[in-house]
Design a protein that fits this description.
Layout (H helix, E strand, L loop, with lengths): L5 H7 L6 H10 L4 H15 L4 H31 L12 H14 L11 H14 L3 H20 L5 H25 L3 H11 L4
Length: 204
């Protein structure tokens, strides 16, 4: 098991004690709610500003974040193929942690069968938040709050160990910084051509 595995036993022990909290967490942990909200915020940044030059800057920000989401997802897949150090908390050998996490997951979410390390949800949400924050701090702050809530909900539901969450945060942030600061500037003029094509198609 990973370091700090005992924290899973502690956090999942709260599940079932406050039904209102469980209902909130079941919404936050969903595969759809927070990802859709993040996408809507990014869409608003893409289309929302009336000034042409500021809108183009925001569109580049959103494009960087979107590329970071895709690349970070690829990194998670590669890591999963090469390194799968431990199962989900509800599949581990320790019966105490396993049963506590299983009860929490069945109450809040469901039993996932894909690899747990690093947390894919945490990786992509923090990649989006970091990428957006580099161009719009206010929107980025909102996305960081959403990413943190999504990550915590998955820890609370016994879906991930705390180390899975930390690895996802690090991978998402570092990928977004690499994409925004190094990769995208070096592949110019392709991002500019992409924006011109999308304007021609009336989607930018």
């Amino acid at each position: 098991m990973p370091p700090l595995a005992g924290w899973t036993l502690w956090i999942t022990g709260f599940v079932g004690k406050a039904h209102a909290l469980d209902h909130v967490m079941s919404l936050l942990v969903s595969d759809f709610f927070i990802p859709v909200v993040i996408c809507l915020i990014m869409l608003g940044l893409w289309l929302g500003h009336p000034d042409r030059f500021k809108r183009e800057r925001l569109q580049r920000t959103v494009m960087n974040a979107a590329v970071a989401i895709g690349i970070s997802t690829l990194f998670v897949k590669l890591i999963n193929n090469l390194y799968d150090p431990w199962p989900r908390p509800f599949w581990v050998d320790d019966p105490v942690i396993r049963e506590s996490a299983r009860r929490a997951a069945l109450t809040i979410f469901y039993l996932s069968h894909d690899p747990t390390f690093p947390s894919n949800a945490t990786t992509v949400s923090f990649a989006a938040a970091t990428g957006v924050s580099l161009g719009n701090r206010k929107a980025g702050a909102i996305l960081f709050v959403l990413a943190t809530l999504w990550a915590f909900a998955r820890f609370y539901a016994g879906i991930h160990f705390f180390v899975d969450i930390l690895a996802g945060v690090a991978l998402g942030v570092l990928t977004a910084l690499f994409i925004s600061k190094i990769f995208m500037p070096r592949v110019e003029p392709f991002p500019t051509w992409a924006l011109k094509l999308w304007r021609f198609l009336y989607i930018a």
